[in-house]
Amino acid sequence: MNKQEIINIVKAKIADKISYFENLIAETRASNNDTKSSMGDKYETGREMLQQEINNLQRQLNEALNQQAVLQKISIETCDKVQTGALVKTNKGLFYIAVSVGEIISDHQKIMTVSAESPLVKAMLGKKSAEVFVVNDINQNIVNIW
């Protein structure tokens, strides 16, 4: 498994997400400036709703920036136990422990990216190959760790 390729895919997804939120915030701010009117309360309510939307988008942008910062700290070295930066194959699937950006495809294989804070990772943290862990009353076997 090429962990560098996996990290590059995840970094690209996060960069796209950051760009998306930055553009959306800029567009929303521009529309906020365009809503000048003499409609009184309706004008103020509309501006407040737009400001709330900007705040929500800013929060999501900050989350994506935090994910990007976490990803910068991850090593591509091979791991001998489940930890952040590990690529873990279980009998249920392939998991990359870093930040959660959903499913990615690398080397024609589906890999689920998961945060170290997820219940799945917390259940398998510190385990080694051939060990078993339980999530939602389902036993999973760790087949390999990279």
* Major sheet: arrangement of strands: 3-4-2-1-6-5
DSSP strand (E) fraction? 15-25%
Order of helices and strands: HHEEEEHEE
How many β-strand stretches?
A: 6
Task: Report the average pLDDT across residues.
Answer: 92
Helix content: 40-55%
Spatial separation of the terminal alpha carbons: 7 Å
Shape: elongated
Radius of gyration: 21 Å
DSSP summary: helix tally: 3
Structural class: alpha+beta
Folded structure, characterized:
This protein is α+β, with helices and mostly antiparallel strands. It has helices spanning 3-34, 41-72, 119-124, and strands at 87-90, 93-98, 102-106, 109-115, 132-135, 138-145. It is elongated. Strand 5 and strand 6 (138-145) form a beta hairpin. The longest helix has 32 residues, at 3-34. The chain has a six-stranded mixed β-sheet.
